[in-house]
Design a protein that fits this description.
It is built from 22 helices and no strands. Helices cover about 75% and strands about 0% of the residues. The chain is elongated, with a radius of gyration of 26 Å. Helix 7 runs antiparallel to helix 8 (about 120-135), helix 13 (about 205-220) runs antiparallel to helix 14 and helix 14 packs parallel to helix 16. With about 400 residues, it is mainly α.
Length: about 400
């Protein structure tokens, strides 16, 4: 309300003095703070038109373009400023951000590396440096840099990110330790809550996982890991409608992550909606990764359950060609050999699958299955799981 009053006041000033560049700049800043990005751009461009020498107006314009997600335009605006001789660390940080969000990670890494000790917000610039390394897939280097930065600049934000990197590097014990330390310093840290939520899912502590992932999405409504975690929690509790909705939110937040499509596809399979599962896996191939073994294996499973054996065989072959240890392809093959009358071979394959560990050092799949049935012994197993049958839908569980 106060910001609206200030905006109206400056608009009144400009009616009396429409060629005042300083007033247009101040109005643009107010509009930016109020989240009115298009109007802010118009005001700042007007200020620049009136006085092209004002570095502050052009710098503010770059900030608005970053806030509104127009990263190529922001990069161009910042490079024009740099060409005119402006080289402040704050400007360099914004250049790094514009590159980072365009996924130009090689260039962004160099920018953040150059300003990690001079940026006015060193923690934030260092966080982006670590995140850039993380996104480049160089987990060992990212963890090393993060630890080094923590020694010189203790920060709950950096420690929480270190926990996330250790999680992705399959070092759950270290990840959990760093996450617990982080939450003691900052109970609202999203990265730490994500790590501990993931650990709780692995331990089948779904009440704790739900609480942690709810904390994540309440702090960051577009956090894909938070929504995916909630999807797993709901799927575990057989709340398939919610699980599907949450997985779709994860896809909406990050449509290029193939893992989101794999999770949603398997939720549909668990709910015996094999046609929907097929569509999801095909979406994942189109929008995320056509060369992911798990998505081909998931598609094979969905096709088998519709009785489309020849198509499924092709997908199994593709999946094993991409990854000889594919979880989903192994699962599909165990179904296939059982359907072909080699029940014992199929059982051995499935037993081997259940003994595997999706994450090195993590719980085996059989541990999760056993715990599930211990907690849900009242459920009646489906009577018919032949391909194309719908009798094993959720409504057949008593």
């Amino acid at each position: 309300m106060e910001s609206n009053t200030a905006i109206e006041r400056y608009q009144t000033y400009l009616k009396a003095d429409p060629d005042n560049a300083l007033l247009w700049e101040a109005l643009g800043d107010l509009l930016h703070r109020a989240g009115q990005f298009d109007e802010a751009v118009e005001s700042l461009e007007k200020a620049i038109d009136l006085d092209g020498t004002r570095v502050s107006s052009r710098s503010m314009l770059a900030n608005v373009l970053i806030s509104s997600g127009k990263f190529p335009e922001a990069e161009q605006a910042i490079r024009e400023l740099r060409d005119s001789g402006e080289t402040s660390s704050a400007l360099q940080h914004n250049l790094g951000m514009s590159l980072y969000y365009q996924r130009k990670f090689d260039e962004a890494r160099q920018v953040f590396e150059d300003i990690k000790d001079t940026s006015p917000d060193r923690v934030r610039s260092r966080y982006y440096l670590v995140s850039t390394l993380h996104n480049m897939g160089d987990l060992e280097v990212a963890a090393g840099v993060c630890r080094s930065l923590l020694e010189s600049t203790p920060s709950s934000a950096l420690r929480g990110y270190l926990a996330m990197i250790e999680l992705d590097a399959h070092n759950m014990d270290e990840a959990r330790q760093q996450a617990e330390l982080t939450l003691k310093e900052d109970p609202d840290n999203v990265d730490a809550a994500t790590v501990l939520g993931t650990h709780s899912v692995e331990q089948q502590d779904m009440a704790e996982a739900q609480q942690l992932f709810n904390r994540v999405v309440s702090r960051e409504p577009n956090n894909p890991r938070g929504w995916l975690g909630l999807s797993l929690v709901e799927a575990y509790q057989l709340n398939f409608d919610k699980a599907i909705a949450y997985a779709e939110r994860a896809i909406e937040a990050m449509p290029t992550n193939v893992g989101h499509y794999n999770t949603l596809g398997w939720v549909h399979i668990c709910n015996s909606d094999y046609q929907q599962a097929e569509q999801v896996f095909r979406r994942g191939m189109e929008y995320a990764n056509r060369n992911n073994a798990e998505i081909h294996g998931g598609l094979a499973t969905a096709l088998l359950m519709q009785g489309r054996v020849d198509e499924a065989k092709r997908e199994i072959d593709i999946a094993f060609g991409l990854n000889k240890t594919s979880f989903a392809a192994t699962y599909a093959k165990s179904i296939l050999v059982a359907l072909q009358g080699r029940q014992q071979v199929g059982e051995k394959l499935f037993a081997s699958l259940l003994s595997s560990q999706p994450r090195p050092g993590g719980p085996r799949l059989i541990d999760g299955v056993r715990n599930f049935y211990q907690q849900n012994s009242h459920l009646v197993a489906p009577k018919d799981v032949t391909p194309g049958s719908n009798s094993n839908r959720r409504d057949s569980l008593k």
